[in-house]
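Archive maintenance. Older records in this collection stored only the sequence; we are now back-filling the structure field for every entry so that each record is complete. The fields below show one back-filled record exactly as it appears after the update. Entries are processed alphabetically, and Methylmalonyl-CoA epimerase is next in the queue.

ARCHIVE ENTRY
Title: Methylmalonyl-CoA epimerase
Organism field: Flavobacterium hankyongi
Length field: 134
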Amino acid sequence: MRKIEHIGIAVKNLNESNKLFEKLFGSPAYKEEEVESEGVKTSFFMNGPNKIELLEATNTESPIAKFIEKKGEGIHHIAFDIENIYTEVERLKDEGFVILNETPKKGADNKLVVFLHPKTTNGVLIELCQEIAD
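Back-filled structure field:
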């Protein structure tokens, strides 16, 4: 794991949250997109070298909708930049971590992603991210 790639924050209303974070950081989101496979709309903010992803559910079955229903708005996950997601998944499985999706899938911001189950990471949902080569 090379660095924290971003911190994901679950929000009820992406438009209102975008306004809040724009005021907080003094600049607008640099990217917005929908990830249909996950049932979310996302926006990304940069603050210095740090990236924040806001996530709003697009349907009631979305993991974000379920998270907000159970815990309310707030930090949803921490994502780490990975050089080789396939190698890292095998290494972490060998170390005893539970992988929620062993086959990497396309996520937001041009990334392949895999999630680690929070029950094996002290209650924190961990996302592994690898940039998709063009």
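Update note: The beta strands are 3-10, 31-35, 40-47, 50-57, 74-81, 105-107, 111-116, 126-131. The CA atoms of residues 61 and 71 lie 15 Å apart.
Entry marked complete.
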